[in-house]
Design brief:
Layout: H1 4-29, H2 47-59, E1 65-71, H3 81-95, E2 100-104, E3 110-115, E4 118-123, H4 133-142, E5 157-164, H5 170-186, E6 194-197, H6 199-233, H7 236-259, H8 271-278, H9 280-295, H10 300-327, H11 335-355, H12 358-365, H13 380-394, H14 396-414, H15 432-443, E7 448-456, H16 465-482, E8 486-488, H17 490-501, H18 515-525, H19 532-537, E9 545-551, H20 556-573, E10 579-584, H21 586-620, H22 623-647, H23 658-681, H24 687-714, H25 722-753, H26 758-761
Antiparallel strand pairs: 1-5, 1-6, 2-5, 3-4, 7-9, 7-10, 8-9
Helix pairs in contact: 1-7, 1-12, 5-6, 6-7, 6-8, 6-24, 7-8, 7-9, 7-11, 8-11, 8-24, 9-10, 9-24, 10-11, 10-21, 10-23, 13-24, 13-25, 14-22, 16-20, 17-18, 21-22, 21-23, 22-23, 22-25, 23-24, 23-25, 24-25
């Protein structure tokens, strides 16, 4: 009793200190903001990113725009005067909005004509003059750059494209989109007759959903875990104390993230749910051991000390291996994955600290619990686990054979996994936002931007006739073989000026025939230099040009094939002594992530495996033990890889983290099992009896923690983001297969590897044995 009083004082002081730190964390968390910045998914530190940023500074970003598609009422075409009047009114409304820098619309598209010293812009469409409708529509369909860009091929829809301020953030972007939607409603245009697409639209939707899904997943996880804890411990404190510890660690983890100025994005939004389910492991192992000792008749103090002593090594080691699993994600060049790995790894270590400070303090201050089932009457868990242990050993040849067969089939299936991603990969195919994007791919040029930098050779200008002809040759290839549905370049400018100087006749929309004619055209170019499309396609001094376009989002595999073909064409058919080119743009950078995904995943997994191997070798000083630890945890990884291959799930940014995380988490139970086995062997001379006793002691905690982990991750399958869905599904499957391997392969491996050398496993753990 005398010893218990100082321990109580220590517990009070511990709670006070942790309370102050938690209050500080709450203050820090209050500063957190949700954010989805498309640019964050570019490969950080890549030379192509630096090049694009310099390119964008000269010509502007290729994704700072919003596409607004308007469908004509049923039974009408877009050339109906009433419909065009609405389009024109909407165009003028958008043009007057703040943060809108330029608007392109069918009602503002015009055919420039140069007469005398002036330039006259003749509109293509005249909604106030119905008699000109047939003439206007015929001219539109003959004019390059209008059909498929501003007007759909079937004349059933139009696009209003408006450029916005560079890198417009969510609040002003949301205000602009809300104003446009309000104007659409005011004009009586129903929601099913208009579509919006663009980076700003996706950014707005993603952030709003992140906030909602974070709340939903946390609520589902709390309900699920609470139910499992109650079924396991059947006491209020067995439910409340783990929840307090884990929720505290989530606050600490988010607080650290906020202190470093990191926002919650598509990846870091997984941190609370991930930590909630992963962080339960230590508390369950401690409480399970604590209750077991109480059941043996030990005092509260002795039970707690034994629980902490026996769980300390396994929990510390598992926290280390789990955090390493997350830290290895820092090998990624994608900033959201890097941040997710860093701060989740830190939070896992913080959870370990709270589990061995906050939890013992609360258990110490609570009265000794009354167990519902005395230890002497036996536990149903012992009977179930005992029968399972006997069955596994009796059928060990079948267990090994089936495991080997499944492993071979999984490896064969895993070879079918492909690395592929699209711009809106994380949205399901029936998502309204994705359907809107598909509308523009079906009816118009598409949403995937294309950028090619054009630099004339030294001593030349972008307006040299040879440079223009080479550029036109590239344009033709891109439209015929690459798949661009819309293209614009300095060639477009010169052709437009030539047409304008020749009365706006379509037959004159072509490059000049001679240097002399080009010289005359260039003297007139100054009349058009103030037009935004000129500034966007060529520098004023003619030292650099831009070839830009749009196409359907074909996915990274197809894009890589197209880019390889384009590079071959540029290398063999374009004279580099005339003009030099370089593929750039936001889509190119997103595709480039795929080149790094495999390397990053292999690097992360290799580091994780090597670190776990070194830790096991250092602590157990046994190669045998390393094999015993690795096999039951690599087998589930390979099986899930096989599931991915069989189901046709592609490797992409979101799914690339699955294997590293799953391995780091799955190895925890093995470490807990081995650490308990070493302690049991200090008192039990028979290896077989020691393994059986450990199986009974650790089996319950292994099953309960695995169920909580699988259940917690399974809540992610309700996500509207495909990436989050697959993270939840595949990590859940990995852990499910992991607990099966833990309860079947692990005891077989231990008994087989150490059947002749049981003393080797009894060696005390350096500095941590006990």
């Amino acid at each position: 009793m005398a010893l218990l009083m100082p321990l109580r004082k220590l517990a009070h002081l511990t709670l006070l200190a942790l309370g102050l730190l938690t209050a500080l964390a709450v203050f820090s968390v209050a500063q957190l903001r949700f954010n989805y910045n498309f640019n964050d998914f570019y490969p950080a530190g890549d030379p192509d990113l630096d090049y694009y940023e310099q390119y964008a500074a000269r010509f502007g970003n290729d994704n700072d725009y919003v596409l607004l598609g308007l469908e004509a009422p049923a039974g009408q075409t877009v050339f109906e005067p009433r419909f065009l009047t609405k389009v024109d009114s909407l165009t003028r409304f958008i043009r007057a909005r703040r943060h809108v820098t330029q608007v392109s619309s069918p009602t503002t598209a015009s055919n420039p004509v140069v007469e005398g010293l002036g330039v006259f812009n003749v509109p293509y469409l005249h909604p106030q003059e119905p008699a000109r409708r047939a003439t206007d529509s015929a001219l539109v369909y003959r004019t390059p750059g209008l059909v498929g860009n501003l007007i759909s091929r079937d004349a059933r829809a139009v696009t209003v494209l408006f450029q916005t301020s560079p890198n417009l953030s969510k609040p002003p972007g949301d205000s602009l989109l809300a104003a446009v939607r309000a104007e659409l409603a005011r004009q009586g245009i129903p929601e099913n007759e208009y579509h919006m697409a663009g980076k700003m639209v996706a950014q707005s939707v993603f952030v709003d959903r992140l906030q909602m899904e974070l709340l939903v997943f946390m609520s589902l996880s709390v309900v699920l875990v609470t139910g499992l804890l109650w079924l396991t411990f059947r006491t209020w404190w067995g439910v409340v104390l783990p929840l307090v510890v884990v929720l505290g660690s989530i606050l600490w983890g988010l607080g650290v993230m906020s202190a470093f100025g990191v926002s919650i994005d598509l990846m870091t939004a997984l941190l609370p749910v991930m930590l909630f389910v992963v962080g339960m492991s230590d508390t369950i192992h401690i409480i399970t051991r604590y209750v077991t000792e109480l059941g043996y008749g030990a005092s509260k103090k002795d039970s707690l000390l034994i629980a902490l002593k026996e769980s300390g090594f396994g929990s510390g080691l598992s926290a280390l291996t789990t955090s390493i699993g997350f830290f290895t994600l820092m090998t990624s060049t994608i900033r959201p994955i890097y941040n997710f790995g860093l701060f989740t790894g830190i939070a896992v270590l913080l959870t370990f600290v709270l589990s061995f400070t906050l939890l013992p303090a609360m258990l110490l201050l609570l009265r000794k619990p009354q167990l519902r089932i005395p230890r002497e009457t036996g536990h149903s868990w012992d009977g179930v686990l005992g029968r399972l242990f006997r069955t596994v050993l009796a059928r060990r040849h079948w267990v090994v054979a089936i495991s080997g067969l499944v492993l071979v089939l999984s490896v064969a299936s895993a070879s079918r996994i492909r690395i592929n991603s699209a711009l809106l990969d994380d949205l399901s195919k029936n998502d309204p936002v994705k359907l809107d994007f598909r509308f523009f791919e079906r009816q118009f040029a598409g949403v995937r931007p294309f950028e090619l930098d054009l630099k004339p050779a030294p001593g030349r200008s972008i307006y040299d006739l040879d440079v223009l002809r080479q550029t036109e040759q590239i344009e033709n290839y891109l439209q015929k073989d690459y798949g661009l549905n819309f293209v614009a370049s300095p060639v477009t400018l010169i052709k437009s000026v030539r047409k304008a100087l020749n009365g706006g006749l379509l037959a004159e929309y072509r490059l000049p025939d001679s240097e002399a004619e080009l010289a005359r055209l260039l003297r007139k170019v100054k009349l058009f230099r103030k037009k935004p499309e000129f500034r966007a396609l060529a520098l004023p001094d003619g030292s650099e040009g831009r070839l830009t376009g749009r196409m359907p989002d074909v996915g990274s595999i197809r894009a890589d094939q197209l880019n390889a073909g384009l590079r071959r064409f540029l290398r063999t058919s374009v004279d580099s002594t005339v003009v030099q080119t370089r593929l750039t743009g936001s889509a190119n950078l997103i595709d480039k992530n795929n080149e790094n995904l495999t390397l990053n995943m292999i690097t992360g997994m290799s580091i994780d495996i090597v670190m776990v191997t070194l830790i096991v070798l250092l602590l157990f000083r046994s190669v045998r033990m390393t094999v015993v630890v690795l096999i039951p945890n690599l087998v589930p990884i390979l099986i899930v890889a096989g599931v991915m291959g069989a189901a046709g799930v592609s490797m992409k940014v979101s799914t690339s983290i699955i294997f590293t995380i799953a391995f780091g988490i799955a190895v925890d139970d093995t470490i807990h099992f081995i650490s308990k086995l070493k302690l049991v062997l200090l008192k039990e001379p028979s290896l077989f009896k020691a393994v059986r006793k450990t199986y009974l002691m650790a089996g319950k905690a292994v099953i309960v923690t695995s169920l909580i982990l699988v259940g917690g991750f399974s809540t992610l399958i309700f996500s509207s983001f495909d990436g989050t869905f697959y993270v939840g599904l595949l990590i859940g499957l990995t852990l499910l297969f992991g607990v099966v391997a833990e309860l079947t392969l692990l005891p077989i491996l231990i008994l087989w590897f150490y059947r002749h050398k049981p003393k080797e496993i009894r060696q005390p753990v350096p500095a941590l044995g006990g």
